[in-house]
Amino acid sequence: MFISINFLLILTFFKTKSFYTISRYILFAITLLSDSFLLLISNILFLLAYFNFTIQVWLCINISMVALLYSMVTPVTLTVMTLERYVAICMPLRHAELCSQHIHVHCILIIHGLSSISCIAVFSSFFASASFSLYTQDRICSLQMYILHKWQGHIRSTVQQFYFFIMVIIIVFCYVKIMKVAKTASGDDKKSTHKGLRTVILHGFQLLLCLIQLWCPFVENYVFQINFSLFINVRFFNYVLFYLTPKCLSPLIYGLRDDHFFHAMKKYASFDLW
Question: How many CA atoms lie within 13 A of 104 on its CB side?
Fold first, then answer.
């Protein structure tokens, strides 16, 4: 169902050319594509693990690399979207310059580059420790299998805590700055500022859920060592609350709250594709 909703939103973006030049819609499209791709992969991996279906490690590595990369693309993009709102509200005269069309491609590359840091850290440490025979073994595909030594877990923890604190600092900074502007604004500017402030709060809540998912593997790894049945239940709970829920908030934030996008979406929801 979530993939179907995201498909409608993606269709709305690509069918409405006016969205191509607006930075917040481009960033929104990145989160939709990332979330849809990740939902598809994670659903497959979750079902395979739930039914104890094993695959060869080399295949699991390729799938996990993509999944881990795009699990970070969404929180990084949400942080960039928050910065975009900060620039639009607090630096309106520079918004057109900083969010111009030629910047968009560079922004997409930077988002994916920053998102790949966690993936590089996890798999570099794994490749340095794993024997060649391990790649042809059949295993249940999960992130726990890539932590062969405690120091690998420490590396992953350090990288994820770095993500966590940087994103939290950015969210808090943008919120405080927008709050200051909201207090001094008047009329239409005040209404627009308060709407931007609510958007930042929603981004913050969505980002919080995304960041909590960074800690889920450590909880799951601890439970895995205690009881495997409990591990399955905990992982299902984490998957629903911290993986699916943030991806359901994207349609709420832009698909329903943004009037321009909402009217365009209604047009294509009624099969008016041309």
Answer: 16
